[in-house]
């Protein structure tokens, strides 16, 4: 358990009490297994998550040693749940002295009713706080993930294959390196046994995988 858990829990309870049942507050602990990072959640009905669920793909980027560290991941970020509800999110990440992500505090507020009210009285106000565009179903989808970290890995691999657009058995070296770069940027290789799965997918040895990864990381710099 992270050292600052008690303090984060107090903040989570305070935020939830301030904003009410429409505000989900989540604490992630990244010092243990990636399969179960949510260690505390208030108003989990907002996104349907519970204690013990896995993190989102965006968090894997911050755990990836090749990704730049930031104390704040996102503030007032607008996204949509699969059921159409509109979510405004802010996240604070906390790091060890060596720069390793150890915990996060996330606020996910359901603003669907606020947006509807804003648009209902739009003609009475000089300018609205919420843009009408957030009602569009073409906006970002909230980054809900499977409860299993390996289910998340499978999703990212599927995205990578679609991004490359070439079947694994038809990929040349450059395409394989590009695919590995895609996976690496999303923190896939932080997941246990991910290397073995990718080797089997691409039909390469672990030695070749490490060499290709070095080339991919060299291209990122």
Please give a quick description of this structure.
This protein has 221 residues and is α+β, with helices and mostly antiparallel strands. The protein folds into two domains: 112 residues, Beta-Lactamase (2-Layer Sandwich); 69 residues.
Number of domains as seen in the coordinates? 2
Q: From the coordinates shown, what is the CATH architecture of the largest domain?
A: 2-Layer Sandwich
Shape: globular
What is the terminal-to-terminal distance?
34 Å
Q: What order do the strands of the largest sheet run in, or round the barrel if closed?
A: 2-1-5-4-3
Q: Please state roughly what percent of the residues sit in beta strands, choosing from under 5%, 5-15%, 15-25%, 25-35%, 35-45% or over 45%.
A: 15-25%
Estimate the mean pLDDT confidence: 82
State the helical fraction. Answer: 25-40%
Q: Tell me the Rg in angstroms.
A: 20 Å
CATH superfamily of the largest domain: PAS domain
Main beta-sheet annotation: 5 strands, antiparallel
Class per helix and strand makeup: alpha+beta
Task: Name the features.
Beta-Lactamase, 7 helices, 221 residues, alpha+beta, 5-stranded antiparallel beta sheet, DauR-like_HTH, YheO, globular
What does this molecule look like?
Pfam families: HTH_22, PAS_6. Residues 153-213 form the Transcriptional regulator DauR-like HTH domain. Residues 6-119 form the YheO-like domain. The chain starts with a helix and ends with a helix. The chain has two domains: 4-115, 2-Layer Sandwich (Beta-Lactamase); 149-217. It is globular, with a radius of gyration of 20 Å. The longest helix is centred in the C-terminal third of the chain and has 16 residues, at 149-164. A hairpin with a 5-residue loop joins strand 4 and strand 5 (101-110). With 221 residues, it is of the alpha+beta class. The protein has a five-stranded antiparallel sheet with strand order 2-1-5-4-3. It is 38% helix and 19% strand.
